[in-house]
């Protein structure tokens, strides 16, 4: 199983990681505790070793608690990444608080939930406009010096904020949204990350399931499903995206892989991308995602994908705090 280095640390991860937001069931429908636990177990069993969570994944830390329950006995085998600086003010309403006191308190609470003495990667989930970024960075640097985390990362930052953060704290990883449709960070952030040995671990590689090939044109979203609020799932954009996915289905059939495996493989082989964070809420989903590793698309198939992307053109999209 391939392992990729995070920054200049001694942490080596699988190119596909498990994103542990869906197992909380906040924006995903059909989530059960049994399936969530089984999905975590399946991920570790198929060779995925990075589990990405956050203090705010769940209204009461459900994601971190589930990881501890099912993988606590395998702690030495896995890499745990969590995040601080975001919390829930009420169901459906998140707030930023990256004051030193809050970051320290959330880190300690995450460690208790995860039943571990340290995490491997601790992110600033998002900058707090009320707090100088250097203060937040300095606190994470202190937590690393104290052994509470082995490395530090940032998410949801501008390119200038990322550089400012790195001037106050050694930076190992950056976590942006990135997929075939959302590639803006290739110009804004990626060159600096490559030049400074900062790993890029991306969320939304399947664009919330749109690029997995499972949603048909006539799909009716559950009223509890949060995806229809995004432009990519609406009107003409939806139809154009379905045309593109139809092309991916043809290419995937030629490779003997699923659409999701094709897309994930393409994504983590892009220059500068260390790993993709693929969410899952059922064991079969994470097993399929893991099937994107240990092979590589041919030049011919890459050309077909690039041609299809050219025909699709730039989609209308919107970023989010992941």
Report on the structure:
With about 325 residues, the chain is α/β, with parallel strands linked by helices. It has one domain (about 5-310): Alpha-Beta Barrel (TIM Barrel). About 40% of the residues lie in helices and about 15% in strands. The chain contains eleven helices and twelve strands. It has helices at about 35-45, 60-70, 100-115, 135-145, 160-170, 185-190, 190-195, 235-255, 260-270, 285-290, 300-310, and strands at about 5, 10-15, 15-20, 50, 80-85, 85-90, 95, 120-125, 150-155, 175, 200-205, 275-280. The strands form three sheets. An eight-stranded parallel beta barrel has the order 3-4-5-8-9-10-11-12, surrounded by four helices. Strands 1-2 form a two-stranded antiparallel ribbon. A two-stranded antiparallel sheet has the order 6-7. Helix 3 (about 100-115) crosses helix 4, helix 4 (about 135-145) crosses helix 5 and helix 8 (about 235-255) crosses helix 9. The chain is globular, with a radius of gyration of 19 Å. The relative contact order is 0.15. The model has no long low-confidence stretch (mean pLDDT about 95).
Primary descriptors:
two-stranded antiparallel ribbon; 11 helices; alpha/beta; TIM Barrel; 15% strand; 322 residues; 12 strands; globular; eight-stranded parallel beta barrel
Given the helix and strand composition, which structural class is it?
A: alpha/beta
Assigned CATH class: Alpha Beta
The portion of residues assigned to helices is 25-40%
* Integer count of domains: 1
Looking at CATH, which topology would you report? TIM Barrel
> What's the Cα radius of gyration?
19 Å
Our measurement of the CA-to-CA distance between the termini, rounded to an integer number of angstroms, reads 27 Å
What is the β-strand count? 12
